[in-house]
Here is the input.
Amino acid sequence: MIREEGAPRILPGLDPLNRPFWTGGARGELLVARCGACDVWQHPPQDFCQACGGRETAPQPVSGKGRVVTFTINRQAWLPGMAVPFVLAAVELIEQAGLFLIVNIVGVDPEQVRAGMAVTVDFIAQDDIFLPVFRPDRGWEAHR
Amino acid sequence: MTDFPEKLVRITGAAQSEVARPSARPALSLTLDACLAAIERAGLRLSDIDGLSTYPGQIANGDGLSPVGSYDVMTALGLSPRWMGASTEGHAHMGAIANAIMAIASGQCRHVLVFRTVAQAAARAEVKHAGIIGGGRAVAARSWGGQSWQAPYNALSAAPMFALYANAYFRAYGATERQLGAIAVNSRAMAALNPNAIYREPITIEDYLTSRLISDPLRIFDCDTHIDGSTALILSHCDAARDSRLPPLRIEAMGLGASGLGVGLHEGDFTGMPGMAVAGRMLWSRTDMTPADLDFAQIYDGFSILTLFWMEALGLCGRGEAAAFVEGGARIGLDGEIPLNTSGGQLSAGRFHGYGHTHEACMQLWGLAGERQVRDARAGIVSNGGFGYGCLLLARD
Ligand SMILES: [Zn+2]
Here is the structure.
């Protein structure tokens, strides 16, 4: 769990569909919407399964493991006090091809991030939100 | 191929207001400047205008993205439109044009005034971060809807989002910064020939390569420029366009597409925008013309990388070939195979938000483009959008 210094983030407003994703980190869980009928994962969460048409999606914990598909080192502070540079990345979760989260990569020098890098979830706690972010997984240097 | 609605519609007028950073004049005044000039250019009177269409419609939050709406223009000009509409959701910037086409083709009206006004420079002069996600007059406490999937990660602009795609494209196809930079360099060279462009000083590729990184690989020159300005177009039924002042321009074909990017859904391999390809295929399926018939291309450049993606989606070059195609700029210059963004585009002429591209296509086809005129321009393509997608094939008989 990470507690940040500096300017607060613009946190997501919560609703019944997104609440599990943004608050599951309180118990250390990354919760992603999954179809109860055909087991397909979907993000952002919704309660209609595009794979089978089912309406019985529910949040389920994923492993929190993934890989960086693509990333950028953002150098522009969009608001006063925003800490830069930071890494924005598309992380594909290992549970399913094409299951992407757009997140920050933390705990590593931005210049060391690579496409294909194995990453694991962590959470930034701010107010009632536990923001899923990713950090290099153990042994990631071996894969470079 | 006469059963597509766009075949019944002509562009009979187009005009822009002044462009400034910021303008001393109110956004509504800039809008009326453009509208009245477009109506005049079409040889119409105010009373001929019976339709009104805009994108996205008024957003009254002070960030200048869309300060003027249909009701403002209707009231200010004393219009009584039989049909009006704003395309807040739809195929991005081109949505308002697509709606106007369908309103005309279905007999709702005969002459539609389409307009788009931005006053983002004025808004930024007052509040520096106006226009970023969650910005405006006061920074939002929380983000909602599609923005809530990127704002918490400090991606308060589309720049880092499209940079994800740019990097994936670079890796997949071996594209280089020097290649991408050709888009920005070309835009400045074109803008130098356009008296109504905001940035007219040429830049070199070395200037580009040493410019400030915003979100790598995107640099300041890869991002379009906030301005105050307005564009107006007149779309007319072909039967009502016969006595136009200028040659009526055919809308030979339109193409439309969309993506889930604005609501947080990312699909594909990040090396292009699948919705652009949908729009491109739709366009070419509605005409006997081919990319070889094009005399110019006005391709959306909210960010330079989008121009490369669009070029591929529209078949101007093969998949993965756009970066090499534009390198050095010769093939996209005024004397090149396909002159690109001849007004300077949004990177250098200013962020007229899609409508600058359509306006410029009209100027070229009417032979009104002055020093930047493409010789014997008879047909050209326009595309708009990064999240939603629209394209037009315009031609002069
Ligand atoms: Zn299902």
Summary: Residues 5-125+226-237 of chain B form a domain with the Peroxisomal Thiolase; Chain A, domain 1 fold (CATH 3.40.47.10). The mean pLDDT of chain B is 96. Chain B has twelve helices and twelve strands. The radius of gyration of chain B is 19 Å.
